[in-house]
Amino acid sequence: MTIGTESRPLRVAVVGAGPSGFYAADALFKSPLTVSIDAFDRLPTPFGLLRGGVAPDHQKMKSVGAYYERVATANEYRFRFFGNVAIGTDITIDELRTYYDAIIVSMGAQSDRKLGIPGEDLPGVHAATEFVGWYNGHPDYQHLTFDLSQETVVVVGQGNVAIDVTRILAKPISELRKTDIPEAILDQLAKSKVKNIHLVGRRGPVQSAFTELEIKEFGELEGCKVVIDPADMVLNAESETELNGETNTKARKNMAVLRHYVDEPKADGDKTVTIRFLESPVEIQGVDRVARIVLEKNTLTGEAGKQQATGTGTRVELDAGLVFKSIGYKGVAMPGMPFDEKSGTIPNTKGQVGNDPALYVAGWIKRGPKGVLGTNKPCSTETIETLLANVDQMPGCASPDPTAVEKLLEQRRIQWVSYADWKVIDQIEKEHGEKLGKPREKFTSAGDILSILRRVNA
Ligand code: NAP
């Protein structure tokens, strides 16, 4: 029987219903084949980092959710969401092969990179990704506590996650209350005593990983000063070459904003963001908890475009009541699939895992934790092109009946969340949020979502 027809649709499982999963589903629906897609997520809610990672004060960025919503609803009879189902534990990858012709793993990067320095595990030292998950109401991070009674915070790394974390700490609570940060977390942020935030980069301003719009926002924050040591803005010859490079508009835009902070500093502000360059953390010190961070001054070495931070041996100490390590996300292994520990990705060729015609990857688990939500579109499209070219080689799954996987979940007593269920939750969150003058008031526990749905569906 030919796979991909009305009588025998191509059955695809998407593992991880975040942006890359939705772009993969979208690309499949746009193919000439008839497809039937089941998107699994270990959380009871869809959209991955759009819900749990994108900054809560960047609601415009979340409007792409309407696109993902259309993918799900415009293909109502061909798309199902199975939330609260953890592939790898509730159902293994090998078991999925029984029900699906192809499996696309798009589970993102669920961990963080380590600094590998003494003191990294002291209380008060956190991964920035944990803080992001916490203030975004992600169920995995709600048990964490962050000691916001501290006045001085050091954020290590200068990517956009570091910028998000710094901005949430620096933003007036009146502004944060308009976002979808959950009320319980707003109450803690309201008590924050954080005054001084140091944003530490190991390389120079030309090499910084943040982007113009994000760095510009600091200047617009009420009551917040931005401080940069003018000496850090002096560039070596290689950095000048990089800055003047034809394609380096990002660095030129960043530099213009940074120079503005140096040339026209704000006179007052009860909070200060100090952007520091050419410093690497070498040790985090403290007795019971973090008290300070030791930084080594760096110089840049290597040719233009490939400059590295090299320690000079000169050390500086910074008081630190809290430290956020924001040096990148890291993928975790999926049982039953190969994994490259160093890059935190599943090795693949244009999205295909090995020579297996049934196994694919998309998003951060495919290419590493880089890029904005939209970067996932071409990434997932490439994977789907590879998949479609392989359909003829697919042996076809043994059990293509769509009800078979539901029966398996019932047998295993797993309460899954359908897309219709999610819409119920979405509506409740929005209504609750409206009463509070915010976009939504999120449920922060999977248990709460499941018990509400049990009541609604009873
Ligand atoms: P990122 O952009 O890769 O930045 C990581 C930062 O950590 C860089 O400054 C890097 O410096 C530094 N770093 C890495 N290892 C280090 C070490 N051992 N010691 C000191 N510093 C170290 O990662 P991210 O901030 O987690 O962001 C992930 C992706 O999401 C990015 O593509 C980002 O643009 C995107 N994102 C976008 C938005 C937005 O659009 N608003 C918001 C959040 C995230 P080097 O450059 O020297 O390696």
Full CATH superfamily name of the largest domain? FAD/NAD(P)-binding domain
Strand arrangement within the widest β-sheet reads 6-14-7-8-10-9
Assigned CATH class of the largest domain: Alpha Beta
Tell me the distance between the termini. Answer: 40 Å
Tell me what portion of residues adopts beta-strand conformation.
15-25%
* Rg from Cα: 24 Å
Q: How much helicity do the residues have?
A: 25-40%
Classify the fold: give the CATH topology of the largest domain.
Answer: FAD/NAD(P)-binding domain
Whole-number tally of structural domains? 2
Biggest beta sheet attributes: 6 strands, parallel
By CATH, the architecture of the largest domain is named 3-Layer(bba) Sandwich
Shape summary: globular
Tally the helices: 16
Q: What's the pLDDT, averaged over the residues?
A: 97
Please tally the β strands and state the result. 16
Given as residue ranges, the uncertain stretches (5+ residues, pLDDT < 50) are: none
Structural class: alpha/beta
The ligands found in this model are: NADP nicotinamide-adenine-dinucleotide phosphate
Report on the structure:
This protein folds into two domains: 10-110 and 331-417, 3-Layer(aba) Sandwich (Rossmann fold), CATH 3.40.50.720; 112-329, FAD/NAD(P)-binding domain (3-Layer(bba) Sandwich), CATH 3.50.50.60. Helices cover 33% and strands 19% of the residues. It contains 16 helices and 16 strands. A six-stranded parallel sheet has the order 6-14-7-8-10-9. Strands 3-2-1-4-16 form a five-stranded parallel sheet, with helices on both faces. It has 458 residues and is α/β, with parallel strands linked by helices. The protein has helices at residues 19-29, 49-52, 65-74, 93-99, 128-135, 160-170, 173-176, 183-190, 212-220, 237-244, 249-263, 364-367, 376-389, 402-411, 419-436, 446-457, and strands at 10-15, 35-41, 79-83, 102-105, 111-112, 125-127, 152-156, 196-200, 224-228, 271-276, 279-285, 292-301, 308-319, 322-325, 329-330, 359-361. The model has no long low-confidence stretch (mean pLDDT 97). The two termini are 40 Å apart. The structure holds NADP nicotinamide-adenine-dinucleotide phosphate (NAP). NADP nicotinamide-adenine-dinucleotide phosphate (NAP) binds at residues 115, 156-162, 164, 201-203, 207, 209, 214, 280, 326-329, 369-372.
